[in-house]
Amino acid sequence: MTDPREPKQAKGVFIKTYGCQMNVYDSERMRDVLRPLGYAPVDSADEADLVVLNTCHIREKATEKVYSELGQLKLTKQARGGNLTIAVAGCVAQAEGAEIMRRQPAVDLVLGPQSYHKLPEMIARASRAVGDRLETEFETLEKFDALPKTREADGPTAFLSVQEGCDKFCTFCVVPYTRGAELSRPVDDIAMEARSLAAQGVREITLLGQNVNAFHGAAPALTNEADWTLGQLVRHIAKVGGIERIRYTTSHPRDMDDDLIAAHGDVPEMMPFLHLPVQSGSDNILKAMNRGHTADEYREIIRKVREARPDIAIASDFIVGFPGESDADFEATMQLVRDVDYAIAYSFKYSARPGTPAADMFGQVPEEVKDARLQQLQQLLREQQTAFNRSKIGQTVPVLITGKGRNPGQAHGRSPWLQAVHFELPQDHAMTIPDLKGRIVDVRVIDASLNSLSGELVGEVAEMREAAL
Ligand code: 5AD
Ligand code: SF4
């Protein structure tokens, strides 16, 4: 007999994710809320009954990609006589809800980042063709409360959302408008999710938030303490059995407090990697961006972090061509990059986002100047990234195995510095790669390129074989 709680028929959902890790996490959560409705994930829109575009609004290019994808989906929907539900989620939905409906009538649902828990209800309503097609109100706490408490983990690494939104109002950025005010989850809820992930085999957790080090979640109920900081949260999550690695992203220099910096040195689970966006090396531009710190204050934070954890890899984000950026301002950015020496960094041309203060500033920089600066910056960043990766050649590093490598018999994993690592398993190896997923093994690095390391497994093999028997 069939279980009446089982969904009656399998339907396919295809979720296409654009933009940041926050969106990657949200897409996972959408999959979780849709599962009880009988929606199983599929690999393409062609196999799907429901397509969700989880969108990004941060740069104009990302927004335009969404409209072009929607044009394609409309054709698929027409070819199927209307049998396809199209939903637009994420920050474009938040910022341009009604506009999406107007520009692309094939869209059935639009929901902002705070409404994912309502997705099942909205789909039910859309299939009855009644009610709202638009759900973009801010209700962040309600969102955290309504999502399923246990998540299905997918592999040994997972994101865990600890805070949402941002109150910093950098003058170029849409996040405070699309994601709303900064809000942190209670520590007990986060710890419960961490335990559930660990029980499903997760070994590495990345604590996630738009402004993650602004975290100030309610302290565990038993402590009777005031809100906890990210440093306190990290120390707490480090005690969860099975969690061997902790990371966090993305942080703001203004919230890099001494306890968090100290945690990089004294919490063994804390991975030696810090993504600390600086955006520019010029004090004039940092001021116009409303970043709230100078280039030298940023240098000082990096110095302290390196003092706490000398081998730490530093990552960042940069914007070139912010309004008013002169050649000298850009040179100050290049100098900061030379001084810090990054392991990896993301760089973008400034893109004016309607409604943000910088969009109306004088001194918008011509496109060709932005192009030239971006090329120059990226050239330097690529050199630094390659040099950082090559500095690991000859070292034996602990690698968390995440799956199969490019070639048969090859495994793929992650170094403490967030580098992708490919390595061969010995021919006579008794365990298959799926058995090895989630293990941390020693790999001697033989070669390195811009994007990955390659190496060979050392020691431990016999021990692992024993464990398998
Ligand atoms: N133009 C260009 N880059 C931007 N970013 C955010 N807003 C803009 C914009 N308007 C970049 C910043 C941020 C990253 C996520 O995206 O570098 O850190
Ligand atoms: Fe945007 Fe600035 Fe907030 Fe980061 S800190 S999300 S760049 S407003």
CATH superfamily of the largest domain: tm_1862 like domain
Number of strands: 19
| End-to-end CA span | 38 Å
Look at the helices and sheets and give the structural class. alpha/beta
**CATH first level of the largest domain:** Alpha Beta
The gross shape turns out to be globular
Structural domains: how many: 3
As a percent range, the share of helical residues equals 25-40%
CATH topology of the largest domain: pyruvate-formate lyase- activating enzyme
Mean pLDDT: 87
Strand composition percent = 15-25%
Q: Order of strands in the sheet with the most strands? A: 2-1-3-4-5-6
Q: Mind describing the biggest β-sheet?
A: 6 strands, parallel
* CATH architectural name of the largest domain: Alpha-Beta Horseshoe
List cofactors, ions and other ligands.
5'-deoxyadenosine, iron/sulfur cluster
Low-confidence stretches: 1-8, 462-469
Q: What does it look like?
A:
The protein is α/β, with parallel strands linked by helices and 469 residues long. It has three domains: 11-139, Rossmann fold; 142-390, tm_1862 like domain (pyruvate-formate lyase- activating enzyme), CATH 3.80.30; 396-468, OB fold (Dihydrolipoamide Acetyltransferase, E2P). Helix content is 36%, strand content 21%. Strands 2-1-3-4-5-6 form a six-stranded parallel sheet, sandwiched between helices. It has a five-stranded mixed β-barrel with strand order 15-16-17-19-18. Strands 7-10-11 form a three-stranded parallel sheet, sandwiched between helices. Helix 8 runs parallel beside helix 9. Residues 1-8 and 462-469 have low confidence and may be disordered. Bound molecules: 5'-deoxyadenosine and iron/sulfur cluster. Iron/sulfur cluster (SF4) is lined by residues 166, 168-170, 173, 175-176, 210-211, 252.
